[in-house]
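Researcher: I'm preparing a figure for a lab meeting and need a structural model of a single chain. I don't have an experimental structure, so a prediction will have to do for now. The sequence is pasted below. Please return the structure as tokens so I can convert it later.
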Amino acid sequence: MKSAILYFSPQLASWKTHLDTSLSSCGHTAEWQAVENILQAPALSIVLLEEKDIARQDWPILPSRKTIVLVDEWSLENSIQWINRGAANCFAKHDEHLIAWLVAELSTFYLSPAHQTEDDILQVIIDAIPAPIFFKDHLHIYRGCNKAFSQSLGVPREKVIGYSVYEVAPKHLADKYYKADCQLLAQGGTQRYEAQVLFADGTLHEIEFNKAVFKNAKGESAGQVGVMLDITERTQLMRKLDKATRTDPLTGTSNRREFNLIIHDELNLQKQFEKKLCLMTLDIDFFKKINDKFGHGGGDQALQLIANWLQSQLRTTDTLFRVGGEEFYILMRDTDIQNALKTAERLCKGMATHTFLINQQSVHITLSAGVIELAPTTDLESALDMVDKALYEAKSDGRNCVCPVFQ
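Model: Understood. Here is the structure written out token by token.
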């Protein structure tokens, strides 16, 4: 006859000898195996643990094993607490009722068939549905799933049913699922949220979970059923579309919409952490002459070359925006007006001496710029108006120069 395996805490080594003797006297044999923590014992196995060996993070795992909590002093209140957390039972170490409980469990082990099949109508129906489906009991243990679920995760049904989410998913993801499950069971009704799921091929998929609570005859929450919808392609497409709306298609830089979206966040961070924030607005001098000489194709090429050159001159913390035909913004973080002015003058001189090659012809291009330090007390629209006026003042002063705004 095959022996059942009983898992136990190493601290119970001396005590389990007495228990093994008692089981033998009742005609039952068991193989004992020490585990350092509950996760080392397979799901559905019998695990004997001392109360002090069970950490709070182990509680979600208790229901997936037949966990016996052993205490020094037994009380009904403490026992019920452990059972509500998912333990199979709670005994005092030397309680003879523990022997009777183990004998009952071992008898069930010997009489149970090695394999059980589930070919009922419900299983056939859910297996025909291509979307992954699962259902769990009120202790968060899987009680069923369809083929699509086990195939997506790369876990056979026999390694799903009777197990917790911590046995079928990485812990950092399982923590999110478990938290959502607890919220659903507490509030009842339905739940929909998005989270990542690790598939059998090792890829992370964006999944929309649609779940609902089912109740028992007493009207109590008995568990939950869930359907997983793979929205990876949709999410990726939405991200691409969102990025496209924030990006200038010609130069690949951020556009005015992106500037409008992030500037308020930057101003809030500036207030919160008291950091300096400057804005440079610049315009390409005599750009119409480039279009007249090389055509609009040459003008587009010039804008691309200018954007690439400007980007190469900036820090990683600076952001370049194309906000108009030949007008750009540069948002400079952690920079005061003096350093922003130096940067603007460096760009102005650098571009004037740089040679651009358009349609195989060497071209020199200059820029005019305005610079302002964005103060937390300054209205954004007023600041943009002031720096635009500074830009036009630079143009009025003969172009190829910088005009700062000192507040």
